[in-house]
């Protein structure tokens, strides 16, 4: 490794969009009978993928192979699973299992040696039951859930590298990530931070788009406007109150004289 | 200069009188043969005769401005006297004016748009103590300044003239301006801003006021205006002298240059005398004109009404377009590396997931902020797309929300204070109005009512409260007069104060 390659490029921050999460489907009776765990009701797949979806793909995201900068992904499952710490050293970075309950999964992403970076850890709540609007039952009966199709729970995120080594930067720039599509052709991946997307998330395989970022930005902007209006109102009120208070204080002082 | 008889005759266009003999008579046959060319005055022509220089003959006769041509070809415009309303007025005054009949009668009064109201800045007690505290100024005086400034619509000379704060120090006009604009700047800077950053910097720049610079400017102008005629003459003489010297030097240089070029074929390499040709040529015409042009120039430079050193910070130049595309494709964000950053391992910020750096609200206010945002359908702890831009948005949103929550808290506090004061007054007045007789009973009802008031309304603090306070006040104003009259009953007074203390404790 040439020495010049091991220099940090200052003032550069480079990120890679990823998604992590899971997909779950309800097992039918036949599958359950043939399984060694007859109490397991769902099959799920946990994964770390690139954010953009490949065309005609059967999964959410995964257009790019992330192994150019990710060496290993470790999924730490619930202790009741045999060998709960699953190391995945080859793409695709995913684990498929069957089970009956939701739990918190620890996801640990280790980078290639050139990065000189420590592994990072995040958490994901393994989602088996369909997303429910307020008022709907949290866990619908299995046959209802089966009709609703696969459950998707994905979080978009960005892995940020600051002042990367020159050779690592070269590796990264040699693999520009696939851009997210500009418009929406598939359902929106549901997210709890945006409950109103529930309707738009139904009806098949979701896909992350640039539109989601823009829409969220607009939501924040809208909220900001509302808050500023509200603030102006309250500020006016506050000044009125202070004047009122001052008058009262003067009145009292007058009377005490 | 005495005018000859011939002059007068020609001025009045009278025929020449041949009976008179005079010097003009001799010229007459010459004049008769040649016509006076356009653009030369008669007197001048009579002096120089037909041998006028060709350039003078080309001078066009000064013409008056062309008259506007109204209604060519007998087209008449119909004018009507119409009443109009100025939408910029709020008293609904109706005046009449003449307008062309072809104009749309429903059109807005075209001058109303020039009535630009000044944005009136107000600040709360809390804002004052946090941002606006100044050793030179008290809050009362600042309040007074703002009220005067508003009354006279920022006409600073009038404001300064009318400014009279009791027991306040003497203020110069610059003091007033400086205080006013610095307060505005601080308010704009510290308040939630609805627009984008550029409009904010623009607004801030418009509030820029450099007191020292303004004072220096005025001092300088004053010294310029208060020179004696001798000083002016001397300055003028010196100035002309300098010009002459410069001119000479230039001439020398030119001569030398020419000489060298013709003799040796090389440049002298002498430094140029930097000079404005137009100004220096003015020296030849006369000192007066030079002085005037200099003066004019000087005043132009010195007279900006509000000198400001504010420069809108130039927006960082974007990278070359190629780089931008490359960076966008590769998700690269370039920042200016801090020059003093030491390249140690410890200083390096390790890789992270963007969502871990989500901006967090102030811990003490977090529950209220989160609740306020939740009402708007925003989750402050998680984003669907935690990108850099969205985090920046979220951060400003949190900032604004913090302001809101704090303002609400202050309103609640003011509400509570008002209710306490109100209660105190009510108790006092209640006992005084009722007089000595059944004072105890009346007070009790009053007190418990006020107690309920305070509890219920400090929590809510909405419009209903303000109304009740107002009505309560006006009712009391009458009661107070009554109370004053019966003030002499001292026993009543003491019981009421005792009761007042008791009530306070209870609440």
UniProtKB/TrEMBL annotation, chain A:
<keyword id="KW-0234">DNA repair</keyword>
<comment type="similarity">
    <text>Belongs to the YAF9 family.</text>
</comment>
<comment type="function">
    <text>Component of the SWR1 complex which mediates the ATP-dependent exchange of histone H2A for an H2A variant leading to transcriptional regulation of selected genes by chromatin remodeling. Component of the NuA4 histone acetyltransferase complex which is involved in transcriptional activation of selected genes principally by acetylation of nucleosomal histones H4 and H2A. The NuA4 complex is also involved in DNA repair. Yaf9 may also be required for viability in conditions in which the structural integrity of the spindle is compromised.</text>
</comment>
<keyword id="KW-0010">Activator</keyword>
<keyword id="KW-0963">Cytoplasm</keyword>
<keyword id="KW-0539">Nucleus</keyword>
<dbReference type="GO" id="GO:0006281">
    <property type="term" value="P:DNA repair"/>
</dbReference>
<dbReference type="GO" id="GO:0005737">
    <property type="term" value="C:cytoplasm"/>
</dbReference>
<keyword id="KW-0804">Transcription</keyword>
<feature type="domain" description="YEATS">
    <location>
        <begin position="8"/>
        <end position="175"/>
    </location>
</feature>
<comment type="subunit">
    <text>Component of the SWR1 chromatin-remodeling complex and of the NuA4 histone acetyltransferase complex.</text>
</comment>
<dbReference type="GO" id="GO:0000812">
    <property type="term" value="C:Swr1 complex"/>
</dbReference>
<keyword id="KW-0227">DNA damage</keyword>
<dbReference type="InterPro" id="IPR038704">
    <property type="entry name" value="YEAST_sf"/>
</dbReference>
<dbReference type="InterPro" id="IPR055129">
    <property type="entry name" value="YEATS_dom"/>
</dbReference>
<dbReference type="InterPro" id="IPR005033">
    <property type="entry name" value="YEATS"/>
</dbReference>
<dbReference type="Pfam" id="PF03366">
    <property type="entry name" value="YEATS"/>
</dbReference>
<dbReference type="GO" id="GO:0006355">
    <property type="term" value="P:regulation of DNA-templated transcription"/>
</dbReference>
<keyword id="KW-0175">Coiled coil</keyword>
<keyword id="KW-0156">Chromatin regulator</keyword>
<keyword id="KW-0805">Transcription regulation</keyword>
<protein>
    <recommendedName>
        <fullName>Protein AF-9 homolog</fullName>
    </recommendedName>
</protein>
From TrEMBL, chain B:
<dbReference type="Pfam" id="PF16282">
    <property type="entry name" value="SANT_DAMP1_like"/>
</dbReference>
<dbReference type="GO" id="GO:0006338">
    <property type="term" value="P:chromatin remodeling"/>
</dbReference>
<dbReference type="GO" id="GO:0000812">
    <property type="term" value="C:Swr1 complex"/>
</dbReference>
<feature type="domain" description="Myb-like">
    <location>
        <begin position="137"/>
        <end position="184"/>
    </location>
</feature>
<dbReference type="InterPro" id="IPR032563">
    <property type="entry name" value="DAMP1_SANT-like"/>
</dbReference>
<dbReference type="GO" id="GO:0006281">
    <property type="term" value="P:DNA repair"/>
</dbReference>
<dbReference type="GO" id="GO:0035267">
    <property type="term" value="C:NuA4 histone acetyltransferase complex"/>
</dbReference>
<dbReference type="GO" id="GO:0003714">
    <property type="term" value="F:transcription corepressor activity"/>
</dbReference>
<dbReference type="InterPro" id="IPR001005">
    <property type="entry name" value="SANT/Myb"/>
</dbReference>
<keyword id="KW-0804">Transcription</keyword>
<feature type="region of interest" description="Disordered">
    <location>
        <begin position="429"/>
        <end position="507"/>
    </location>
</feature>
<keyword id="KW-0156">Chromatin regulator</keyword>
<comment type="similarity">
    <text>Belongs to the SWC4 family.</text>
</comment>
<dbReference type="GO" id="GO:0000122">
    <property type="term" value="P:negative regulation of transcription by RNA polymerase II"/>
</dbReference>
<feature type="region of interest" description="Disordered">
    <location>
        <begin position="1"/>
        <end position="35"/>
    </location>
</feature>
<comment type="function">
    <text>Component of the SWR1 complex which mediates the ATP-dependent exchange of histone H2A for the H2A variant HZT1 leading to transcriptional regulation of selected genes by chromatin remodeling. Component of the NuA4 histone acetyltransferase complex which is involved in transcriptional activation of selected genes principally by acetylation of nucleosomal histone H4 and H2A. The NuA4 complex is also involved in DNA repair.</text>
</comment>
<dbReference type="InterPro" id="IPR027109">
    <property type="entry name" value="Swc4/Dmap1"/>
</dbReference>
<dbReference type="InterPro" id="IPR009057">
    <property type="entry name" value="Homeodomain-like_sf"/>
</dbReference>
<feature type="compositionally biased region" description="Polar residues">
    <location>
        <begin position="487"/>
        <end position="498"/>
    </location>
</feature>
<keyword id="KW-0805">Transcription regulation</keyword>
<keyword id="KW-0539">Nucleus</keyword>
<protein>
    <recommendedName>
        <fullName>SWR1-complex protein 4</fullName>
    </recommendedName>
</protein>
